[in-house]
Amino acid sequence: MIPSLLQSCKGSALSGNFSTYLDHFEVTPELLKKVIRAAMSKGGDYADLYFEHTLNNYSNLEDGKVNQASSNVAYGVGIRVLKGDQTGYAFTEIITQEAMLKAANTAASIANDTGKAIVEDINEYTAPNFYPVITSWEDTSVKEKIPFLERINEKIFGLDTKVTKVNASIGDTTSYILFYNSEGLLACDYRPLVYLNATCVMEKDGRIENFGVSRSARMGSEFLTNDLVDTLAKDAVEKTNLQFEAGKPKAGEMEVVMSPGESGILLHEAIGHAFEADFNRKKTSIFSDKLNKKVAENFVTIVDDGTLPSNRGSLNFDDEGNPVENTVIVKDGVLTSYLHDRISAAYYKVKPTGNGRRQSFRYIPVPRMRCTRMENGPHKKEEIIASVKNGIYVDSFSNGQVNIGAGDFTFFVKAGYVIENGKLTKPIKDINIIGNGPQALADISMAADDTRLSDSTWTCGKAGQSVPVTMGLPTVKIKKLVVGGINA
User: Fold this and answer.
1) Residue 2, Cα to own-chain centre: how many angstroms?
2) What phi, psi does 342 have (nearest 5°)?
3) What pLDDT is recorded for position 5?
4) For 211-223, what is each residue's pLDDT tens digit?
5) In the 8-state DSSP scheme, what is residue 376?
6) From its phi and psi, is residue 479 left (phi > 0), alpha (psi between -120 and 50) or beta?
7) In the chain, which residues have pLDDT < 50?
8) pLDDT of residue 255
9) pLDDT at 13
10) Cα separation of 188 and 176, whole Å?
């Protein structure tokens, strides 16, 4: 399944960018082919090589001083062999011919047959660039990051006399990726990633409250601006102050209105994972028999998009070398597609959707979300809130759990409001909401025209791997969820 925009390099030199990446990892086209032949030597259907060089940097401010800075490097290659829906995998942190051939022969053991030929042409995939970099993190010193940490500390302290402590951190990652497979596909990518976090702690009348805020993107150090710092500082102070006023609502089953943006975490966890094709291929997802069936109201359309400019969840190509796209999962209430990697796409006889992702070269790729969001609906936010007699409005989440098989979920709500007779009244905090993902999807009775993406630092865990993601949602009303709180 070779994507478009390919340039064949049989008998000719590789183009400049590809040659640079081969030089970076100190490999040659002949060595790539030799390793792939070894991987295919026992009859595998397909094989690929995933080279990675990742540099991580972290700086932290606490008690008014930058007291911690660290860096680490990940470097190596993962070698995968597929035989039907079975995977053989090995990796090495030493990129030499001997080490790679040893790993390739280990991965090849998933099969036991006559070796298959590989495509001898090298086909260069020139992917679109969804995250251009102005100033790389490699060219940005710790000294240049410190003023932004100091500024957010000063801003938060300056906004409210109740502030007693500020913790702030910047983390940046730069990854060089080189991919080659038995179909002759060669692809390379330069992946930046950055986040800025700040936690504000306040004390009032002996009571201590805190709230953390963050922003993240696939950008270079142009991400760090005074405007960003000022916005985060204001957000942190306002949300921490609100915690002093917040309590718990009465417990029970009630209507729940989800705020735009951050509440997309419920869409991601409670519903999105169940759309990943490996769960459906294995019949463990509750949606495994619902393809092309109605699962929500007609105004509900849900997509998973890997093409958004500079978005934390975007990729120029996925970790199997497939082009990314804006995949429509639910269209006008009908489940139209799962999120596919190479294995599930072959099983369902469709093209991969560009959702094969892995944490690093040490892991196999599996179907994962990128930026999962619900599109605009036909209603207004004010109209939705006005329609609720007794319920809650949820605004910020801290964590959650979901059972993929049954679809049951529990989420911890950090902040929100009680809705009484169509109006937001008392702020609430630290409550659980409990429900069932497919039922919650079916119970979305209203959706506003204000869909917004979260730009916070979301990381998704699955199969022992973590990858950066984002999500989005308009204001929506769910007919009923169980809300934890104070017994009536």
Assistant:
1) 25
2) -65, -45
3) 41
4) 999 999 999 999 9
5) P
6) alpha
7) 1-12
8) 97
9) 58
10) 8
Question: What is the per-residue pLDDT for 403?
Answer: 83
Residue from 297, 317, 167 nearest 233 by CA: 167
- Model pLDDT, residue 3: 38
| pLDDT score recorded for residue 115 | 82
Amino acid identity, position 58 = Y
In the numeric block, which tokens belong to residue 66? 């930058």
Predicted pLDDT of residue 79: 98
**Considering just the CA atoms, what is the radius of gyration of the chain in Å?**
24
**Residue-by-residue DSSP string for 313-329:** T--SB-TTSPBP-EEEE
Q: What is the pLDDT of residue 405?
A: 79
Q: What is the pTM of this model?
A: 0.93
Contact criterion met (CB below 8 Å) for 261 and 454: yes
CA pair distance 31, 23, nearest whole angstrom: 12
Look up residue 351 and give its two tokens: 């093209």
Signed CA dihedral, 282, 358, 220, 51: sign only: negative
Q: Identify the residue whose tokens are 């330069």.
A: 190
The Cβ of residue 183 has, within 10 Å, a number of other Cβ atoms equal to 16
Q: Cite the beta strand spans of 206-325 per DSSP E.
A: 207-217, 252-258, 302-305
Closest CA to 114 of 44, 45, 43, 34: 43
Structure tokens at 342: 């190479």
What amino acid is encoded at 252 in this protein? G
3-state secondary structure of 289: coil
Task: Record the tokens describing residue 270, joined without a space.
Answer: 């409670």
